[in-house]
Amino acid sequence: MLRMLLLLLAIWIALVLIRDVLRRRRIRTTSSAPVVTTVCCAHCGVHLPTHRALQHVDGRHYCSPEHARGDG
Length: 72
Known about the structure:
Layout: H1 2-31, E1 38-40, E2 47-49, E3 54-55, E4 61-62, H2 65-71
Antiparallel strand pairs: 1-2, 3-4
């Protein structure tokens, strides 16, 4: 009877440890990729990160100064 209880306890501990490892792996994979916001150039339609885009006074975004001059 004692052997049965020890076996069940060992199985329960193994399941708890496995569940914890899987949870940590899932958290690590979902939080590792940074989120980058993109916008579309109002002139040519190319998508680029917001921090690289030129924003016109009317709120439209452009990929280059040439496109900003050509569309306005």
